[in-house]
Amino acid sequence: MDETAPPFPLRTQKKPSFPIRDELRDYLRRFRRERELPVTYERLRGFHEAIPLVDAEGRNTLWESVVYRAEEMGELNEGLKRIYALLRVDGDFSVMQHLYIDRVDFCSFGNSTPFRIRIVNAYNDNADHFYIKRADASRVYGLELEHLLSPNRLNFLTHGNTLVEEHIAGIPGDIFIERWLERPELAPIRIAKELVKFNERCFIRLLGDMRSYNFVVVITPDFEGSQIRIRAMDFDQQSHNGRKNFYLPQFFKENAPLVAFCNRHLHGQTAFQYQREEQTLLLQRAELALPRLGPLLTSMEHDPIAPPENVHSLRAGLAEHFQSDRYLQCESMGALVRENLRMLRLNLGR
Fold first, then answer.
1. Cβ(199)–Cβ(248) under 8 Å?
2. Which of 53, 85, 176, 265 is packed most tightly, with the most Cβ within 10 A?
3. Within a domain: residue 147?
4. What average pLDDT does range 284-298 have in this prediction?
5. What does the angle CA 91 – CA 233 – CA 123 come to, to the nearest 5 degrees?
6. What is the pTM of this model?
7. Are residues 329 and 221 in the same domain?
């Protein structure tokens, strides 16, 4: 893997939030992402009290458990259960009667300042989580592109200025690097292979800021060892930054141990093979998803989710990377994603 570019600093400038415009809203309605929700983000903001939430070892988690007034708890909990039913079973509330809302947490850090809802099955104490956030157009594009172009499927809903997301389960990337990376039961080649594939997926669809704490690692036991998949869990930085390397996870210093591990265990020619495999799969997904991907990219092309100077800087970097002046004709981030896919077809002879 290429290590010629300098690593990025620990923090990036906070990205502004962009409203969902009419064309994107029409897309969300057409594909049943936009639904009437009984609880909005702004309603959750009206909590009465907040208590710091610590982990099992007593360390601060940066989350706070919030408390609402007693007279509104019943209606609020019922509304949150109905949102979960919409997210999981298209609103069939008959199979959700045995669930209860155990806790509502709030995080004031990050772009989306989310609420995390912990919902529990009363019969077996099994818990699940979902998130309610302030809707941001670039994040919505990121979620939908992940759903269409990655091997993963995502459930999310919007309603006005509210965004609801399912929980993405896995080991946070920074914890994986610290505690799991060198475990003998995990095949090094499979870890390295997945990093190459994840790097390629982020780059082609322009998902940025994939530092180790913004993705999770999913380990699936198999008959010959365990399979590894890296999944993005933060989509705030979809197609906004103007630096090409911002969309390549290998260049963040937080990921350096993972990159060094990959370089140690993977031959350059093998890395190219895995890169080409993911490019082929990504293009196949794009072709299958064309009825949705086409109008999504059209909406994205018309949406000012990045200032012109960022678009111009990124298109210059991509034009140099791919040795193609066609990028210099692109005037939006959506156009750059579309050109990345066109270039992929050209390189694969499709």
1. yes
2. 176
3. no
4. 97
5. 45
6. 0.94
7. yes
